[in-house]
Amino acid sequence: MDASESDSDTPAQQPRKVAFQAQPALSAFSIGAVEPEKVIELPSLASAPDEMYMRGGGGGARHKRKPSNGTGSRVTTINVGEAEGNENEDEQHWTEIGQVPAINPTPMTTRSQRRRNRMAANQQLRKLHSEHRQNHINQRIDELGDQVRNQLQNMKFHRPYFTYTTAFIQILVMISALLPITGGGHAHWGVSPKSTNHKITSFDSSTVTEKTTEASNMWFGPTTRGLLHWGVKYTPCMRHEDWIDDVLDSTKEIESSFGCCQTEEGRCAMMNGTDCYDETWTFHSEMKCDRIDVCDEIVLRPCCFGLDGQCAVVAEDYCNALDGMWHDKKQLCSEVNCMEGLCGLGGFHGKDPDQWWRLITPIFMHIGVIHLVFNLVFQLRVCAEIEETAGLWRTAAMYMISGIGGNVIASIFSPRSVSAGSSGALYGMIGVMTVDLFQTWQLLENKTFQLFRLIGMLVLVLGIGTLPWIDNWAHLGGFLVGVLCGIALLPFISFGKWDQRFKLLFRLIAVVALATAATVGIALFYKAPDPGFCSWCHYVDCVPYTSSLCKGASRD
Fold first, then answer.
1. Which of 44, 411, 419, 423 is the catalytic position?
2. Closest CA to 315 of 208, 429, 186
3. Is 335 in contact with 270 (CB distance < 8 Å)?
4. Pairing between strand 310-314 and 38-42?
5. Strand, coil or helix: what is 97?
6. Which residues does residue 54 pair with via DSSP β-bridges, in sequence order?
7. Angle of helix 472-489 relative to helix 423-439, nearest 10 degrees?
8. List of residues 6+ apart from 341 with CB closer than 8 A
9. 207 φ/ψ angles, rounded to the nearest 5 degrees
């Protein structure tokens, strides 16, 4: 805060006037409008004691009133970082904070009082830091002239409605996905897969024990099938895949030798002649069981399970143990479309999947509660600051375009990974922050610190992206798209005619680059669906720190 004392010959008993400019604290997204100078009156300090102390417990601060300087004005100083009980005056470091009345402390007799005093001291320190940063920006604005000042005055403050609305939708979707009534349900919480033994009734009515393995969710969230039914990114649900055709052709070839096997009790099922081994059973070659009058019940039917469209003719209780989908109206796996049942949500016109909206829906979904909390903390802090400067529509456009762009890149480079989350969009917001950092470089204090803080944020999110179901390709793609969106859509401050021309030129280039990237990305996604062109790409998504960590999250 720029502050200047009124006339020095003002009597000590009269109130003094202090002029200041009210502006927000400096940050990459908080350079707001500059208001006209205001004048406030501070009470006289002449009647205060010559020295007064306030000490907070445990690393608090000490305030000291120094004697008058002979002009009726006094200076209040603060000693930062003194530990409780430290009386060594030689280690005091004083920082001037202007003419502020001293604080009359209350006796510190309880822990709660010491905590309140410590909080008050920390609040004073934050205020000092904010004022120091504001002094810096005021000085820089004075040096740059009225052109920059006028631009700052014309900038508007916007309420972050989009940020809060998006967060509310994401929380609502997470709760719904965990409720069994909506078809969801939570998976086993852990890192290693969960093994379970099940009692299964076999074809001959005997009971056998089968062991199944269920993928765990370390983020405390829904099962893999539940996530797929809610619209996470999974490329086989979005486009035609050649490997699915190979699976169907192999299944048809195997089932070409199937016939109906019938027991003495009238239990029937489709299988090959080798499996119909009991002497009391009857094998009807190349005949379906529904055409045999003596079949009282068809006990084995197609069951779709897993992420690769696996199918087997099994009993219903075994299919449930596999967390699969049992088709009680069909007899052979070649008669069902396992991918359509796995993906849900429709979009399968005839045979090929076309759930293009999975490029959008993952932005509002999360793998689990822990994943959601991490993203919300970042979103409510960073995205809200951007929206306060850029406004609702610009922020919504940058957020959604970055999220969709990140999902397109992820679908190209890691097509068979199951992933969800707003991380691609949030990484796009980091790209926008990067653009804003360089656009306001001349106004920033501690430029190197701001740059390295941003780099640290990038590294942290990339590290989190190596865990299961968190899509690092969406992070990288979202960041690159976010940089282009920031150049194209983020309001900027020009520091001269040539600076303005360069920024407008870069804005035009960014718009063209976005349009080109969208065209090329969609074309590559639909026209080049070979998942084997990059054999190592899935390691960017999930690093197998343990042998079972990435199972169930990636099928590459």
1. 423
2. 208
3. no
4. unpaired
5. coil
6. 63
7. 40
8. 304, 325, 327
9. -105, 130
Q: Any idea which of 129-143, 185-199, 252-266, 518-532 has the lowest mean pLDDT?
A: 129-143
Q: Is 475 a catalytic residue?
A: yes
Q: What residue ranges in 290-339 does DSSP mark as E strands? A: 297-298, 301-305, 310-314, 325-326
- What pLDDT digit, counting tens, does each position of 128-155 carry? 666 666 666 666 666 566 666 676 667 7
Strands 267-271, 297-298: pairing is parallel
Q: Residues 158, 284, 327, 475: which is the catalytic one?
A: 475
Render 158-212 in DSSP notation, one character per residue. ---HHHHHHHHHHHHHHHHHH-GGGT--B---SSSPEEEEEEEE-TTS-EEEEEE
Q: Exposed/middle/buried for 401, CB within 10 Å: 0-12, 13-18, 19+?
A: buried
Alpha carbons 352 and 236: distance in angstroms, whole number: 9
| Region of residue 70 (left: phi > 0; alpha: psi -120 to 50; beta: else) | left
Per DSSP, the residues of 214-254 read E---TTS-B-HHHHHHHT-B-GGGTS--HHHHHHHHHHHHH
Tokens of 515: 């349009």
Catalytic, 423? Answer yes
Torsion sign over Cα 407, 413, 416, 418? negative
Residues 469 and 420 sit within 8 Å (Cβ to Cβ): yes
Q: Report which secondary-structure segment, H or E, holds 79.
A: strand 76-79
| Least reliable range by pLDDT among 215-224, 400-409, 455-464, 527-536 | 527-536
Mind listing the pLDDT tens digit for each residue in 459-483?
887 777 777 667 788 888 999 999 9
Give the integer Cα–Cα distance in Å for 371 and 369. Answer: 5
